[in-house]
Amino acid sequence: MSFLLTAALSFKLSEIRFWKYYFMDIKPLETEQIGIQTLEKQLMTSESNISLKIGLPKEVSNDERRICLTPDGVSILKANGHEIFVEKEAGSEANFTDQEYADAGATIAHGIDEVYQKSEMIVKVAPPTEEELDLLEDNHILISALHLGNANEPFIETLIERSITAIGFEFIRGEDKEFPIVRMMHEITGSMAVQIGAHYLEKGEGGQGIMLGGISGIPPATVVILGAGITAEYAARTALGYGAQVFVMDNDLARLRHLENALDRRIITATANYQYISSALAYADVVIGATEQEGDRAPCMVTEPMVMNMKPGSVIVDTVIDQGGCVATSRTTTHSNPIFSAHEVIHYCVPNIPSNVARTATYALNNVIVPYLLDIGDAGDIKECLWKNTALRNGTYVYKKHLTKKSLAELFDMPYRSIEMLIASQI
């Protein structure tokens, strides 16, 4: 009997010591780095076959504050034999200093020209501007977003003429059918959209002067979410957290069922037809446009007469404005000038919402992109990597002077060739 008692006490003490160690070891200020620390332990064992020269230019697009790699990500790549060139102050908007990048092993370049000249691969958030396109050299590898709503034919033609291998964030898709970069940015966007809507409902911001969540005796605000994808799911979760009444509208019944089950039926769902959208918008305090269309422009679901019928001081947050927007009255705005009013309805149409939480978004980008860069190094060259890596192959939209995305070819009325065929034919 005494033996069993002693064993039980010994087990209990060891359990207490384990949890004490666990909670003391993870400090609150270190939580944002837990993911990258785990990633580093897993990836430091990789042995790259080639040394990549990777360039991180400072973003010059309006209000773009994110960067693709953190200093921790740079240290992982450096440990695997790669060279990283970071333009001076490239990470400043995300609160990463040049000294942190230098300590991680990066070379700090004093101008954008130096980054492009010394690098064979450019990794950035926003698509290259016209000035940056001029800096791209033949056979450069470009990994960045494409922004379908703003993409144009001359941009694609320039990439084709210079034999750039261009990989777009929007197209990177693994064998699990997930879009990892898009998903992370959509999670951030969905949560932020509700914060933004709540902010602009305040009277001082031109709104109705109401709270998103109700209090005792006063009903909550109504949030209407158009779409039932990742952005919509995280918007719904956040809106429910505020205490709002939430409607989600989509024409994909499977998605609506999934969302109802995931949120324990605390939302109201409806098909996104003219009648239901018109009725819902007439009562809405906040409308979040989140109609995602994979690799294509967003469908316009809200007409101008619908907006005219909304309550004065209500708010529209069009999160798919970078894909053309899903509200007829939407037009692109910036973080420095984020809103405009149309028919007495506040419109927030900033295309890069995650940029406003640049540090969080940079960690998210880093955790997805670093393994891909290591895969390219391990494969020995980009062609071999594209053949083996489904996600990067799906993400490639220009390769060996050919457009390789059918959706882009249809959008710009340009010829295209399958990337699988290009690689298999040894082109």
UniProtKB/TrEMBL annotation:
One of its GO terms (biological process) is L-alanine catabolic process. One of its GO terms (cellular component) is plasma membrane. One of its GO terms (molecular function) is alanine dehydrogenase activity. CDD domains: L-AlaDH. Keywords: Oxidoreductase. Residues 201-349 form the Alanine dehydrogenase/pyridine nucleotide transhydrogenase NAD(H)-binding domain. It is an enzyme of class 1 (oxidoreductase). SMART domains: AlaDh_PNT_C, AlaDh_PNT_N. Residues 55-189 form the Alanine dehydrogenase/pyridine nucleotide transhydrogenase N-terminal domain. Its EC number is 1.4.1.1. PANTHER family: ALANINE DEHYDROGENASE (PTHR42795:SF1). Belongs to the AlaDH/PNT family. This is alanine dehydrogenase. It comes from Fodinibius roseus.
